[in-house]
Amino acid sequence: MRRYVIKRLAQAVGVLWAAYTVSFLVLNWLPGDPVTAMASAGMDSGDVDPARLAALRQEYGFDKPAPVQYAEHLGRAVRGDFGDSVSTGRPVTSTLAGALPQTLQLTGAALLLAVVLGGGLAVPATYTSRRWLRQLLLSLPPLGVSVPTFWVGLLLVETFSFRLHWLPAFGNDGFTGLVLPALTLAVPTGAQIAQVLAKSLLTALGQAYVETARAKGAGRWRVHLRHALRNASLPALTVVGLLVGQLIAGSVVVETVFSRDGLGRVTAAAVTAQDIPLVQGVVVFGALIFVTTNLVIDLVYPLLDPRIVVTSDRKAALA
Amino acid sequence: MSQSLVDDPAEAAPGPARPVAAGPEPDPGHRVEVGRLLRFVVRRPGLLLSVVVLVLVVLASFVPGLFTSQDPLKGVPSQNFRGPSGSHWFGTDELGRDVFSRVAHGAQLSLKATLIAVLVAFVVGGLLGVVAGFVGRWADDVLMRFVDVLLSIPALFMSLALVTALGYGTVKVAVAVGIAGVAGFARVARAEVLRVRQAVFVEASRAGGARWYSVLGRHVLPHAAGPVIVLATLDFGSSILAVSALSFLGYGAPPPAPEWGTLISDGRNYLANAWWLTALPGLAIAATVLAANRIARAMDGEWSRQR
Prior knowledge:
The complex is a heterodimer of chains A (319) and B (307).
Chain A: H1 2-29, H2 34-40, H3 50-59, H4 66-78, H5 92-127, H6 131-146, H7 149-163, H8 174-205, H9 208-215, H10 220-257, H11 263-272, H12 276-304, H13 307-318
Chain B: H1 3-7, H2 30-42, H3 45-62, H4 99-135, H5 137-152, H6 155-166, H7 170-180, H8 182-197, H9 200-207, H10 212-248, H11 260-267, H12 276-305
Helix pairs in contact in B: 3-4, 3-12, 4-5, 4-7, 4-8, 4-10, 5-8, 6-7, 7-10, 8-10, 9-10, 10-11, 10-12, 11-12
């Protein structure tokens, strides 16, 4: 078990370092000069003051050789310093930390809702013996992954805020303000969870242990929930790990639609202002969330299914 | 990201997981195949509808004039904010422009961007995957670690970083979406090449003294292409969503251009009094994506299972 944990930790750190490097390369060395981009902030960069360019160049260290720039930035990033935002002048790290709680609230609520939606579709769909009901339930997830998130959000606002006046359309106020954005964000995620869960539930129901449980006289619900669902939830858990990054990124669109403050709004503003340090901070942060969630899931896995550690240890012993 | 990747999170197991089907049937069977394809489609009403929708959208993107004679950019100011009716199917916007004609003409921009995105992902990702799978050893290790890193950065963040670096515009957004999709293609292409590489006929061709490029071009690539093409169809749907999300956020073509995402973001300002400005263009996006996904699903399993 200890070897498994150490190996996973080392992999996570490696991926983070590489994500930092990739984002650094993309943002700093792609065609187009980052300094001109920063100075002109998205406008046509014909007439920017050369003196201002030179000052910016020196301030951000772009006058140094590329490898030196990279090493310096990486050294500071390891200590949690991603530089200062170009547009606001505040440190990137504190800007992100300030915006994070709102977004975590939103994505947390959305994830919870998505799991409920996914399970609520997949379990009855595989349990029912009515063909039409099953087909109806199973036709919803493909619909959920095909609709644009921002469109769903706007339709919800249109219906529940402007027509029915039940919930606020915009802003961050309390629980009622959270319902519509979280629901919007949960639609594609829940649909994907439902697809995977339904598929693995059907597979599980065909397994020998389900037959055994039935033969021993367990009721249908008991077999379905205690035996099949428990085993079928493992693939769904993997998918949840993959979807968390998508949820965080989805906040960019959802927070824009609902005019909520948070990481997504900060990101959209940073891209509009071509605020390179801030955008890089967001990208690395997204990778950090993704890597951490998957690390946690990798560590929880052996608790759910002891076979996983056994096989990975055996492989390590052979190597 | 595509669903098929999510369905199969396991690393490509280089075992005989799926037998390699015998080569494409010889020419005499060609007619039969067409007939079978027609019957296959007609017997599935949903699939037939999807094909029709996709054909209409593709037609609209090449000759939008076929569907509407009204100008997408010039409006009649006295006729603004008219609801959907016989003369304006999708209503009119704040300047009195016909929304249906804007959607039809917008198909051109949005579909062009989507095709570029899929092409970038297909070519770059496919190349990475084929090299990793065919060369193996260190090339495999290096390339696949790189792909893992790409996978760890959420696709939208990756696209946004690329947009920040490249700038705004339909083509730049398309490239940004395409690069974000590279990892998926690389993984599937590699898995397929690994699977085919172990087939008996590949070994036989090697033993017969064929050069590596002829083994690759004649035997491996044709048999590995199927799942990658299915992924391209799935990626078509998700690319439409990604491209329209980026243009909704305002990084696509500049204002008068009727890109699908831009249409919805414009209509957002009139949500309270003109629902059709957001609802109907969104419906066009959803219908196109749904159709593409349905076709991908048919290609993925149903077609081969029916044999």
